[in-house]
Amino acid sequence: MLHRLTIKNYAIISHLEVDFSGNLNVITGETGAGKSILLGALSLILGERADPGVLFDKTGKCVIEGLFKVKKTQVLPFFNKHELDLEDQVILRREISAAGKSRAFINDTPVNLSQLAELSTYLVDLHQQFDTLELEKSDFQREVVDALVNKPTLLQQYQQSYQEYVQVQKKYRQLQEQRDNANKELDYNKFLLDELADAGFTADEIETLDAELKTLSHAEEIKNTLNKVYFQLKEDEQPILQQLKQLQASLQGLADFHKEVPAIAARLQSSYLELQDIAAEVEHINDQVHYDGERIAQVNERQTLGYRLLKKHSVQTTAELLAIQEELSQKVGNVLNLDEALAQLEKQQTSLQESLKAAAAVISAERLKQVAPFEKQVNALLAQVGMPNARIRVEITTGHLHAYGQDNIEFLFDANKSNQFAPIRKVASGGELSRLMLCIKSLVAQSVALPTLIFDEIDTGISGEAARQVGVILKGLAKAHQVICITHQPQIAGKADAHYFVYKDASADKVTTNIRLLSKEERITHIAQMLSGEKPTAAALENAREMVGS
Asked: Where does this protein have coiled-coil stretches (predicted)?
């Protein structure tokens, strides 16, 4: 509930503070006194955009603050979602500078306007004289019926399944698009894959072919050099290996005469063994190298194929070429597997759809149970508020599955007992919509906890008994909900738990708007003035006393 509203430097309000009761709060005052200015200020802390032109004093800033007492469970989803600290009371504050800069706060934490507006839906239901478009919306009409059903778990379980269904549908469409695109490329990818598969290159083959071709192309030069090396090492007139052997033997003969000679002799022996091994390796390599014209032609052909494929696929190595081959293989394989995946998703879709239809049928049945009692109660209330010939009818038709079942819900209206029912948006006047909205909200409030309800001149166009009945309905609504009502009707004012009077003060050379809570006697006098004028008659005073006491 809205416990306190503080307004500083707004429009013609210098400073105003008002504490509201938890039941029916009525605000009255002369036309132009500033009643709607209060709602304008309140709308700023509910997320409306600010106009710097509303500053009372252009040198200071405007501050609007609302203190709400809340049940933590009521607003917990919002505070968890935005990671804000939750206390037993919530303070919304809006500051507007003379330069037009606006700042918003929730419990002194800066927030943006969208967050402020989101939180306000948990705290306040603002119903203004011309704010009845909501009643014409199908979503609101469905919400009314579901509030009367009052089985939120049933709908929540359905919506969880529906979200899963939507995700499967989305995945199916994406997979279809992927398959269609893949099919366009399938023939070309398969051609590329077949070309690479037919080539049959193995790891590092092209690089190996390069090395082999160099060897084959220089076979004669290689053999000549290797023969020369081998000849000088082993078969020359004085082979290097023989000379080393002799030198090592000579040094060995001096081993007894100098202590460092044996080490040098050992090193010569190691060199001899190393060169002997080199000679054997040279001979082995020489035996392996042969000029082979036929092999050169084969390698050239294979190498040319490899270079052509490397160039075609814009890569440099066999490894990259093989990676492309693997990628193409996966793409082709994936296309062949997509049909199977689509079939599985289609089966899943069908299963979920059948399950949803069954759940939606249960929801539809619950809604249909509420239609007749709802129509009867609303029509009775319409008669109470001065519309005895008006009728409402709820039409529920079955349509496609959607997030709230498969029902299309339409409120139909007949204002003149003509049995010519038509959608509310086409036939109901503004005054009729206002009273119809009040009747509906009073019924919904019996099933669910609504936030603070604010009605701005909902009584426009009615008087007498109809106005009294509007007051009765508001009084009943206020037993379980905080209601704030701006009215010109004494019959409604008489039902107030707290009666506030808005007035203009012309002192200090400036006209300002103020508000004060009336005492019981002040209420009687003011209501009498509303009945008969500035100087109320004794009869008006007695009538007012009866209204306040009833």
From this structure: 123-185, 328-362
